[in-house]
Amino acid sequence: MHTTLVAGWVDSVALYELVVFDPSDPVLDPMWRQGMF
């Protein structure tokens, strides 16, 4: 269950990141990844 939960959470975070943040941004994107993972 844990693996499924984490996989679903990562998918939702990735989708949220695509919608909210510019993936080419050199500042926000690394900060977001380091902060959440």
Tell me what the structure shows.
This protein has two helices and no strands. With 37 residues, the protein is mainly alpha-helical. The chain has one domain.
Overall tally of structural domains: 1
State mean pLDDT (0 to 100 scale). Answer: 65
Cα gyration radius (Å): 11 Å
Strand fraction band? under 5%
Distance between the termini: 19 Å
Keywords: Chlorophyll, Chromophore, Membrane, Photosynthesis, Photosystem II, Plastid, Transmembrane, Transmembrane helix
Subcellular location: Membrane
InterPro entries: PS_antenna-like, PS_II_antenna-like_sf
Membrane topology: Multi-pass membrane protein
Secondary-structure map with pairings?
Elements: H1 2-20, H2 28-36
Keywords: Chlorophyll, Chromophore, Membrane, Photosynthesis, Photosystem II, Plastid, Transmembrane, Transmembrane helix
GO biological process, one term: photosynthetic electron transport chain
Membrane topology: Multi-pass membrane protein
